[in-house]
Amino acid sequence: MIGRYAFSIVIGVAVTLSLLFVMHLLIVYGEDAVSKERVRHNLEFVRVKRNETTNVEDLIPEKPPKPPETPPEAPPQDMDNVDPNAPTINVAAPTMTVDSNIGGLTGMNVAEGDYLPIVRVAPVYPARALSRGLEGHVDLSFTVTSAGTVRDPIVLFSSSSLFDRAATQAVLKFKYKPRVVDGVPVDVPGVKTRISFKIED
């Protein structure tokens, strides 16, 4: 019991001495802080006067001019400068040779639902062949799909390889009424056509 009191007294004396020491340090350094002259900074404020008036006239856009009631007449064409002897280039329409023989005893005619060509697109004359004055034709074989489009074009014969691409691209744009068998549209393979390229005067 006496030992606890002695220990408490020693701890209390140590804490008290520590606090006194800390207070002494604060007083010593606090005097320097109070006596030392501080540097003061002056802040300058510039007050800008607001412009309360707004120019409304500048904000209103100008009205666009009214369009003329009647369009101006087109200038007459000068027909005096037209050369009547100038050469003209015409691309002949493609000729179609369709094999409609599907086998069997009687076959199937158009009235029974055979395919029919609807759209035939003329080919674009190749520039290299045109510059050389080259004419010719391309025989192709393709499949008419159940949707009426062309699929898998194959060049069977070509008078010049310059015409192959133009002929193939033209055939791919052909449209057909598909063949209908028992009320269901079906593909028709082996359809043949010839695309002719002729320069007409």
Briefly say what this structure is.
The chain is of the alpha+beta class and 201 residues long. Helices cover 24% and strands 21% of the residues.
Account of the 3D structure:
- It is a single chain.
- The protein is of the alpha+beta class and 201 residues long.
- It folds into two domains: 1-33; 89-197, TolA/TonB C-terminal domain, CATH 3.30.2420.10.
- 24% of the residues lie in helices and 21% in strands.
- The protein is built from three helices and eight strands; from the N terminus they run H-E-E-H-E-E-H-E-E-E-E.
- The strands form three sheets. A four-stranded antiparallel sheet has the order 1-8-3-4, with helices on one face.
- Strand 3 and strand 4 form a beta hairpin.
- The chain is elongated and about 130 Å long.
- The chain starts with a helix and ends with a strand.
